[in-house]
Write a structure and sequence with these properties.
Blueprint lengths: L4 E6 L4 H18 L3 H5 L10 E6 L2 E10 L4 E9 L8 H15 L4 E7 L3 H9 L3 E3 L11 E7 L25 E2 L2 E2 L3 H10 L1 E2 L2 H4 L4 H9 L5 H19 L4 E2 L16 H9 L6 H6 L2 H10 L8 H8 L6
Parallel strand pairs: 4-5
Antiparallel strand pairs: 1-2, 2-3, 3-4, 5-7, 6-7, 8-9, 10-11
């Protein structure tokens, strides 16, 4: 990435994003005149949580965003670089960032639409590996539209927490994928419960890799550590969403902390599989392992993860 260009992942309500959207639309109207009236209705991107703003010396100079098309395909939208910053390959950098973000969210393909009048844009996409396809959806009967598609990395990369020193992370968590993105690891959920904050997957996906790792590593045991953890996580949510975090009531006597008694809910769940767990086995588990088993008892979790956890915790034979 250029030393001059700084990338920010944000949402479509970001003031700098909206500012450049206005410039983009004005330029399109000047270029395409009345033809733009047809396309303008398809360019709206309200309430997207996947927008990008690029800054040159703290000045917003380029934008782009992602819009879900279907379960495995994302649409590249609103690519724009201000006139005075063109010729510096900023559009290539923004496009690459969009593709990286789409890959992190688990998408396999990226599609886009441009105009036969925009030679530079078509060249950018072709050089980036996009191929021309049949016009899709609303562009099917628009002769001046050019639609393109590219295959992204066809897999979700291993979690950054796998084999990360100092973090209790389980192999079965590699299967935790929702909405085409990796879920919040159990170690972070454990600390969120202690700190009294609910974190949404859409919020988690906005955090930088180093911030997610910090949330996994940061201690949250003593009252002071819990306060600092709450402040740090609250600050991230405010930073990326401009919203206050959702507060949870903290259970002062959680079931996982009772070493003397195996929770009835857990006993019933295990019995359905024809297994059982002794008080001694329960007591010998780590705090996080007991927390995980209780979470996996919830109806919202698939049964396939529960036996995997039992095997990994060596409660049943593999």
């Amino acid at each position: 990435m250029s030393d001059q260009l700084k990338i920010k992942r944000t949402n479509s309500n970001d003031p700098d994003f909206k500012k450049l959207i206005v410039q983009l639309d004005n330029e399109l109207w000047n270029e395409l005149n009345e033809d733009q009236a047809i396309y303008d209705q398809y360019n709206k991107v309200p309430d997207l949580n996947t927008a990008i703003v690029a800054y040159e010396n703290k000045k917003p100079v380029a934008i782009g965003c992602l819009k879900n098309h279907n379960d495995d395909t994302v649409e590249i939208k609103r690519m724009y670089v201000v006139k005075e910053s063109r010729g510096k390959k900023y559009s290539k950098i923004v496009l690459k960032e969009q593709e990286q973000w789409a890959t992190e969210r688990g998408f396999i393909y990226a599609i886009l639409e441009t105009s036969i009048h925009f030679k530079a844009a078509r060249s950018l996409y072709l050089n980036a590996g996009y191929t021309v396809i049949e016009n899709y959806d609303q562009y099917k009967d628009l002769e001046e539209s050019v639609c393109m598609k590219k295959e992204l990395i066809n897999k979700i990369e291993p979690s950054e927490f796998k084999e990360l020193a100092g973090v209790e992370y389980f192999d079965f968590e590699e299967d935790f994928v929702e909405q085409n993105m990796r879920c919040i690891p159990m170690i972070v959920r454990f600390k969120m419960d202690a700190a009294g904050i609910k974190l949404k997957l859409s919020e988690w996906s906005k955090f930088k890799k180093e911030e997610r790792i910090e949330l996994a590593l940061k201690p949250c045991i003593t009252a002071e550590e819990t306060r600092l953890y709450n402040n740090y996580l609250s600050g991230l949510i405010r930073k990326y969403t401009n919203n206050w975090p959702t507060v949870l009531s903290v259970n002062q006597s959680p079931e996982w902390a009772d070493l003397a008694n195996v929770p009835v809910m857990l006993q019933k769940k295990i019995k359905k599989f024809g297994w059982k767990i002794s008080k001694e086995q329960w007591k010998n588990l780590t705090d996080l392992q007991r927390f995980v088993l209780i979470k996996l008892c919830k109806e919202s979790h698939e049964n396939k993860n529960f036996p995997k956890a039992l095997k990994e915790f060596e409660l049943i034979k593999r």
